[in-house]
Amino acid sequence: MSHQHTELDPERDLGVSGARRARRILAACVLPLLIATIIGLIALWPRGDTPIGSLENPVEGPNFTTATVVEVTGVLGEEVRAELHDGTGRIVPVQVPPEIVEAGIEVGAQMRIFFTASALGSGSPYVFVDFVRDVPLIILGVLYALVVLAVARLRGFMAIVGLLASLAVVGVFLIPALMAGGPPLLVTLVGASAMMFFAVYLAHGISIRTTTALLGTFLGLAATTALAAWATGAASLTGANSDSSLVLNSVLPGVNLRDILLCGIVIAGLGALNDVTITQASAVWELRAASPDAPLRQVFARAMRIGRDHIASTVYTLAFAYVGTALPVLMIVMLYDRSLGSTLTAGEIAEEVVRTLVSSIGLVLAIPATTAIATLLVRSSRARDRFAVLATSDGDGAVRTEPADGDGGVREQLADGRGAHRAPGAHRADGPGAAENRAGPDAVDR
């Protein structure tokens, strides 16, 4: 009998007893992680005063205002003319740095400007600070939400909720705890764990499949963290190769920049890690549903073929993402006449190389780990399906079953001593009292 499932359902495919056994195994593995995460959040939660908000807003004050560009003049010291939004409606010249002018300024653009009398010596006292981007970003955010909801519907909505919850962990726990001087590695592991619980269970629901993927994600996270801790030390990475790192070091001198780099490497790979584990867990159950009598080794091998394709695509996805992020740095480094080896081992490039390699290794290791866990969990249903309980057409209903022979069929021994062979998935329908639909995944449980 063919198995046709309209929707992936590990509980249905495993049957009642198999699903119960799988839940017990997963609970024994995941519940300690959940408890440890909660304890970690409570113990490491930043208390008292933190450095957050300790510095004044650099673009707010009586000398700051917004304006709309009405003309691009190109005149040195008065590159644009803009209408002030201070209630006066005056049109004033504004100094704009040459790199901003070269990037392009359009009439109608909103900008934030600063009035300072000290700028009169070089031109207008009104100086460009930044563009106002509120409206375009809101439009883009709304468009993103609409596209996700239109394509993925409820699952997409829950994915957005999971994303927001994960980002809330970063904003209210991870960053404040790091700034308050908490142990960076522990803070990152606890924060990453909380992010994964929110992201996986809110987006995909609580089930055997998603819990299997979550467990595989934790294994990949552990590998990534251990490797990142070793690589940052072995490669003597300092984390002090960007302007933002130097600013951070000046305002928070107690923060170790190498530890912050390590935390960033761990967090950076979480999204791709969760992506591949969910895919692998789903692949195992789909393969088992399509071929319920396939040996476990064959299910694992088939799932790994899917995993290898995912590895191939995801590895270069990570590499391309990091290349895009570090593109200005790459261009600057390549201006110098130096060998390829010297270029790749330069501090600012080495950080990106380590980030890419560590995240990729953790991702690759998570795929066989998740596949193995999922394959072992479907083992219970195969063991159950090797037996059949069939009622005979005579009055006493006596039945004895024997394990399946080599081809997966079941040898039925009836009460009168006659033996009958039933092929895999076949049903008996040879008279009153015959078994009904015993090829379903819950046959023995019924």
TrEMBL record:
Q: Where is the signal peptide?
A: none
Alphabetically ordered keywords of this record: Membrane, Transmembrane, Transmembrane helix
At the highest ranks, the source species' classification is:
Bacteria, Bacillati, Actinomycetota, Actinomycetes, Micrococcales
| Membrane-traversing stretches | 25-45, 135-152, 159-179, 185-203, 215-235, 255-273, 314-336, 356-378
InterPro entries for the chain: YibE_F (IPR012507)
Q: What's the protein name?
A: YibE/F family protein
Segments for region (Disordered) = 398-446
- The answer to whether the entry has keyword Transmembrane helix is yes
Composition-biased stretches, type Basic and acidic residues, lie in 398-419
Q: Which Pfam families match?
A: YibE_F
